[in-house]
Amino acid sequence: MSKPNEDYLLSSVKNALRILRSFSLEEPEKKVTELASSLGLSKSTVSRLLQTLASEGFVTKDPTTQKYRLGLTILHLNTIVTSHLEINREAQPILQQLVRDIQETAHIAVLDGMDVVYINRVECQRPVQALSHIGRRNPLHCTSSGKVLLSYQEYAKTESYIEQGLARYTPNTITDPNAFRNALKTIRQQGYAISIEELREGVASIAAPIRDYTGKVVYALSVIGPVHRMNPYNPSIIAKVKRAANEISEKLGYWKT
Predict the structure, then answer these.
(1) Where are the beta strands (DSSP E) in the chain?
(2) Backbone dihedral region of 16: left (phi > 0), alpha (psi from -120 to 50 degrees) or beta?
(3) Which of 84, 104, 40 is nearest to 244 (CA)?
(4) Cα(7)–Cα(112) distance, rounded to whole angstroms?
């Protein structure tokens, strides 16, 4: 008696997987109408499935273009996926050395929509629990990684983020749009970002940009620790984080001219 319902559920799962598989390097973003046409499904079916996938982080929707793209939840499915990413493979020994030098936890992060997402993490011997984990999403404006990544985006992307409002998380969070714009300008000039108790009290971090072979900033390298243990304004720490980020950039094919 339950066979028809089972067939419907299996069909929905199959169609959801077909949607995920339809994205490619050549077409990383698609609208509902494009997906419906290419897969031979109704727009209502595709829209419903996309909403379900989005609720679980498998896809994300750009509010400006109304296009969908794959979400980073896919990276959570298997640690083997992340372990074979080029950035993680190339960065791992450099991160490990940085952690030994600074004695705090290091991360690699990417920009995903309006969030920063951590895709690699090397713990120090004295890790502070619950500060970060692979796959964690944080706001851009109050994290050093987020500020680094946002500072190198196109003007329209930066303004779109600012216009949605800079939420306050602690007394140190920058919420004034003009002050935040000036902070991003400074980050571009100096090549690193610092966050001290802007997202969470008692936590400090410093981040530097990682570039791909084209020179585009695609990742951020950050070091995070408790404020009583780490001073991100320390010139030695700044130099080590920037140097490590540059080394990873070179591993990805970037050569500064």
Answers:
(1) 59-61, 68-70, 105-112, 115-122, 137-139, 193-196, 203-211, 217-226
(2) alpha
(3) 104
(4) 35
Model confidence at 175: pLDDT above 90: yes
How long a stretch of residues is the chain?
257
Please, are residues 82 and 134 in contact by the beta-carbon 8 Å criterion?
yes
Tokens of 35: 């997906």
Asked if 207 and 118 count as a contact pair (C-beta separation under 8 A), the reply is: no
Under 8 Å between Cβ of 174 and 147: no
173 Cβ partners below 8 Å, 6+ apart? Answer: 141, 142, 166, 167, 198, 199
Average pLDDT in the chain? 87
The answer to whether the predicted template modeling score (pTM) of the entire model surpasses 0.70 is no
DSSP letter assigned to residue 58: S
Q: 240-256 burial by CB neighbour count: b if 16+ within 10 A, else e?
A: bbbebbbbbbbbbebee
Q: Please provide residue 26's backbone torsions phi and psi, each rounded to the nearest 5 degrees.
A: -75, -30
For 185, phi and psi rounded to 5 degrees?
A: -65, -45
